[in-house]
């Protein structure tokens, strides 16, 4: 899943990015409000972590403008400690949740995961397809009761497929959601990772869940 981090404090931004990447998220970063609006409108993110105090445009302007463009991406707004009015203003402008600084990374991660589970189709922390089960909180995968060990990138790819279960996802949409925007991946990288997943979750079992739809992309279904 792909997240945009908007934070002008380089140390905080890098810390958030590292933590999220360790949890198998693809992360893009920008450091001012104008860049945030452009990225949020033109790219497809699963969540946005947005600081209020930013150069060029503040977080309130950013969330207001992206909502005006019809973007419903979940937004977690970072506020100053005890700044009650900032929280109220942010929520009124269109933010979905807020987190006061300083914060623990575990709480930030929990808030982000909660926002991403809000749509009806992803309310459960467990994503299931036939006898395959992925736990987004424990970051575990099992099929037919057998635990399957995946790399972080394999896990992120499988999670994206499961969140779009029954739908065809193109290679481009996979690249956008599973890899960072500036990731330098080869043309066959996605095919290779699909192959890795098939080796682990399909080949040892009677039925194949990951399907190739020639000319369009991939989908997972029972």
Can you characterise this structure?
The chain has 222 residues and is an alpha/beta fold. The protein has two domains: 2-116, Response regulator (Rossmann fold, 3-Layer(aba) Sandwich); 121-220, Orthogonal Bundle (Arc Repressor Mutant, subunit A), CATH 1.10.10.10. It contains eight helices and eleven strands. The chain has helices at 10-22, 33-42, 59-68, 84-93, 105-116, 152-163, 171-178, 189-202, and strands at residues 2-6, 26-30, 47-51, 75-79, 97-100, 126-129, 132-135, 140-143, 146-148, 210-213, 217-220. The strands form three sheets. It has a five-stranded parallel beta sheet, with helices on both faces. A hairpin with a 2-residue loop joins strand 6 and strand 7 (132-135). Helix 2 runs parallel beside helix 3 and helix 6 (152-163) packs across helix 8 (189-202). The radius of gyration is 18 Å and the shape is elongated. The mean pLDDT is 88.
Overall geometry: elongated
Which percent band covers the strand fraction?
Answer: 15-25%
**Low-pLDDT regions:** none
CATH top level of the largest domain is: Alpha Beta
Here the CATH topology of the largest domain equals: Rossmann fold
Instruction: Note the main sheet.
Output: 5 strands, parallel
CATH architectural grouping of the largest domain? 3-Layer(aba) Sandwich
Individual helix count: 8
How would you classify the helix and strand content by structural class? Answer: alpha/beta
């Amino acid at each position: 899943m792909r997240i945009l981090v908007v934070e002008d404090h380089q140390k905080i931004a890098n810390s958030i990015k590292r933590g999220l990447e360790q949890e198998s998220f693809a992360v893009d970063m920008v450091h001012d409000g104008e860049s945030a609006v452009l990225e949020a409108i033109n790219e497809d993110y699963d969540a946005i972590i947005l600081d209020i105090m930013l150069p060029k445009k503040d977080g309130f302007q950013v969330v207001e403008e992206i909502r005006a463009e019809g973007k419903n991406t979940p937004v977690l707004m970072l506020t100053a400690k005890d700044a009650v009015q900032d929280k109220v203003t942010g929520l009124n402008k269109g933010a979905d949740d807020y987190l006061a600084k300083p914060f623990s990374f575990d709480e930030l991660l929990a808030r982000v995961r909660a926002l991403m589970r809000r749509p009806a189709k992803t309310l459960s922390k467990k994503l299931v397809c036939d006898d395959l089960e992925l736990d987004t909180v424990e970051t575990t995968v099992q099929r037919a009761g057998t635990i399957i060990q995946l790399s972080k990138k394999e896990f992120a790819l499988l999670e994206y497929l499961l969140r779009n279960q029954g739908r065809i996802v193109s290679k481009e949409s996979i690249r956008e959601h599973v890899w960072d925007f500036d990731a330098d991946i080869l043309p066959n990288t996605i095919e290779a990772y699909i192959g890795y997943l098939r080796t682990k979750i399909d080949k040892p079992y009677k039925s194949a869940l990951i399907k190739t739809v020639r000319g369009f992309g991939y989908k997972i279904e029972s």
